[in-house]
Specification:
The protein is mainly α and 327 residues long. The chain has one domain. The protein is built from 17 helices and two strands. Strands 1-2 form a two-stranded parallel ribbon. The chain starts with a helix and ends with a helix. The relative contact order is 0.14.
């Protein structure tokens, strides 16, 4: 089934319509919640109850790390802003740089995932994300072990070292965990310093600006919350979101069978599913739809019976049960 089979030309145009204003709202919302997370901790200096706002901040900041990564994803489909240069500029500086991602590298990688969803990865063909979900379901003990590694910060170093290597051009861009080093020319110390400075400049600049802003308001230590959330809650939320999207599903080419949508509550939006990323089946069905139009697309697909034989989960609790249930 294709989008044109259930949507009229007018409906298709409406769903694919982008908005610079809505794009600014998406980016501003994420940065507003980031600022609010810092503020709630700064304005609650009382011990020992300060640990309550710290925990809240770690949850929301981890969610916003994920939100910025999702906005990079939307921009790679040219769906974040209507104006092309705004889409590229805002995604690079306000979404990708804060979370150590590269828009162009991710775009090429991710479009291959759409082309070969669910297929074994072989060279330049196949789904590069299949490694993230192909082993599920697993035992409850194994899942608890992986989630504990995420929350304890033990999963993050591999991810961030890989992102640094990919951004430097030392390794092929691949977020699935495979390592393919690229041949490098010989460099002296100054050559390496030039490479690091130029390739990582967006990330280093944004981190410096974030730290400086917190320093100027007299709370430089709050920057540690940004780093800590990237190493803990972000990893935790990302793993469960990834499992939900394609885990425990048939390895077939039909997007209505190999992809899942998860209907969520408000608190799950503040944890696992920012920016309507839970409507993943709808995204695969019509991948250039802006995220803020996905709920309506979900409603129409549901009303017209498109989702009758597809996988629609009711919350991430159901995902965790499926992930630990033998096939």
């Amino acid at each position: 089934m294709k989008p044109k089979d259930i949507l009229s030309a007018d409906e298709m145009a409406r769903f694919l319509k982008k908005s610079d204003f809505r794009g600014f709202i998406e980016v501003a919302t994420s940065w507003g919640l980031i600022a609010a997370s810092f503020a709630i901790v700064a304005l609650w200096p009382h011990l020992p109850t300060i640990f309550v706002p710290i925990i809240v901040a770690l949850v929301v900041l981890g969610n916003r790390h994920l939100a910025l990564a999702i906005l990079v994803h939307d921009a790679c489909h040219h769906a974040l802003f209507k104006t092309k240069w705004l889409n590229e500029f805002m995604a690079k500086w306000f979404c990708a740089a804060p979370v150590l991602q590269d828009l162009e590298g991710y775009r090429k990688y991710h479009l291959q995932h759409h082309k070969y969803t669910g297929e074994d990865y072989q060279g330049d063909k196949g789904d590069p994300d299949i490694i993230l979900t192909r082993n599920y379901p697993i035992s409850k003990k194994s899942l608890r072990k992986w989630l504990f590694k995420d929350l304890s910060g033990r999963s993050a170093p591999r991810l961030y070292l890989g992102l640094i290597a990919m951004n430097l051009g030392l390794m092929r861009f691949d977020l699935s965990g495979r390592i393919q080093m690229l041949k490098q020319p010989r460099r002296n110390f100054f050559g390496w310093m030039y490479l690091v400075t130029t390739k990582l400049f967006p990330f280093l600049l944004v981190q410096a600006l974030l730290f400086t802003a917190l320093y100027l308001v007299g709370q430089p230590w709050l920057y540690l919350l940004w780093i800590a959330s990237g190493f803990t809650t972000f990893q935790f939320f990302t793993r469960i979101r990834s499992i939900a999207e394609h885990g425990m599903l048939p390895r077939v080419s039909n997007m209505l069978q190999n992809t899942r949508t998860t209907e969520v509550s408000w608190w799950e939006r503040l944890t696992f599913a920012p920016c309507h990323v839970n409507y993943h089946l709808e995204h695969h069905f019509l991948m250039a739809v802006p995220s803020y139009r996905l709920p309506e697309l979900h409603r129409i697909m549901k009303e017209r019976g498109v989702l009758d034989n597809s996988s629609v989960a009711h919350g991430y609790g159901e995902i965790l049960r499926l992930a630990t249930t033998k096939a």
